[in-house]
Amino acid sequence: MKLAKSLFLGSVAGLAAVAGAQAADLPAKKAAAVEYVRVCSTYGAGFFYIPGTETCLRVGGRVRAEFRYLEPQTRLDDSIGFRARGRIQLDARTATAYGLLRTFVRFEITRDTGSYGFSTSTPNVDQAFIQFGGLTAGRVVSMFDNADLPTGHMGTLRFSDAPNVNLFAYTFSFGNGFSATISAEEGRFAGTNFGTTPFFTEAGQTAPDLVGNLKYAGTWGGVQLSGALHQIRSADLVPVGLGLFDYPDAELGWAIYGSGYVNLPMLGAGDALWIAATYADGALGYLGAGSNVTVGQVRGFLTDAYIGVNGDIETGAGWSVAGGLRHYWTPTIRQNVFGSYARVEYPNTPPAGFVGPFDLDFNEWRLGTNVFWSPVSGLDIGVEVLYANIDTSAPEPIGVNNNIWEGRLRVQRDF
């Protein structure tokens, strides 16, 4: 019995040894490596490496809640309104042998009611662009404007206030803060008529606006000088003699812009003073207005051009200047004081077919201030008051109001 038991145990041990040797010869499956998200500090806070790539990504956004009071002119006018705006943005950057490759996209949806206008929810591709070395292509702030200005206002000031446009641009960096940019941009148009009577019909655009700038940014502040050329073509047939009609020759509108800001650390950390001035002839869209400027019950019309009595294209002209001061009373409480003045003029040649005095020149000025409290980083709670006034060279009926008061309350979180 003992012999049989010994033989049985020996057989089991032998089989186990053989099975173990065979198992050792089989390929072993390794556990999958865990890939952790790595912080990318090259481009600032909030960036991380997309796993498996050398591309750094930052996810950000904004929520803005705003309440607006606008002095009503009639009983039908809304004097109050609400705005809610949501923003999501992605910023992807990759270092290459040719320089930085950057892709940026920003989506916004705004819900306005009351004094903000019609009750609408408006989705918007606010920005979407690619940068590769000196090339910028897509939708981004116009190269005509200085996006670095520390403006800080909520309401409207009358100057070219960094609108987003579609463009193809190239920037030459010279070092020590100096750069120059040339850009082909979507046309920036003012209105094409006065009121409801057309005096100029825009023809199809055959050339983009050409924009260029020279810029310097340093520790003390920065300056920028910009210029733009704007094509003016008419679709209106005009008499050329002997009962014949033809289109007038195209004209070239233009605009020039200068701006600058100075940091004022002697007053307080973060304090700054800024100014921006624009002159435009035949390119009034660069003044920061659309087809008209309305204050109270008075409206000033803008048009790049119109057809004169001689059948030629006549251009409107105008200029604007804006400026402001930002001051931090404490590290969390800041105040902005700002204002603007704009003047638009037309030659004293009445448009063809115009009945009555051609007297549509106007000037407008605005003045305001706000105070923001930022209890934590990225959160702004602010109030603003703004006054605006307009005067036209045409006689105004008695009792017509040409000035307004406006107030806003804003809560905003950026992340």
Describe this structure in words.
Strands 2-3-4-5-6-7-8-11-12-15-16-21-22-23-24-25 form a 16-stranded antiparallel β-barrel. It has a domain at 134-414: Beta Barrel (Porin). Residues 1-5 and 11-24 have low confidence and may be disordered. It has one helix at 2-25, and strands at 48-49, 56-70, 80-96, 99-112, 120-132, 135-141, 164-175, 178-185, 193-194, 197-198, 209-217, 221-232, 238-241, 244-246, 251-263, 272-281, 292-295, 298-301, 305-307, 313-315, 317-330, 333-345, 362-373, 379-392, 403-414. The N and C termini lie far apart (82 Å). With 415 residues, it is mostly beta strands.
- Shape descriptor reads globular
Low-confidence stretches: 1-5, 11-24
**Count of helical stretches:** 1
Total count of strands: 25
Mean residue pLDDT:
87
DSSP strand content? over 45%
Structural class: mainly beta
Tell me the strand order in the biggest sheet: 2-3-4-5-6-7-8-11-12-15-16-21-22-23-24-25
Indicate the percent of residues in helices. Answer: under 10%
**Could you tell me the radius of gyration in angstroms?**
31 Å
Order of helices and strands: HEEEEEEEEEEEEEEEEEEEEEEEEE
Write the CATH architecture name of one domain.
Beta Barrel
N-to-C terminal Cα separation, in Å?
Answer: 82 Å
**Largest sheet data:** 16 strands, antiparallel, barrel
The CATH class of one domain is: Mainly Beta
**What is the name of the CATH topology of one domain?**
Porin
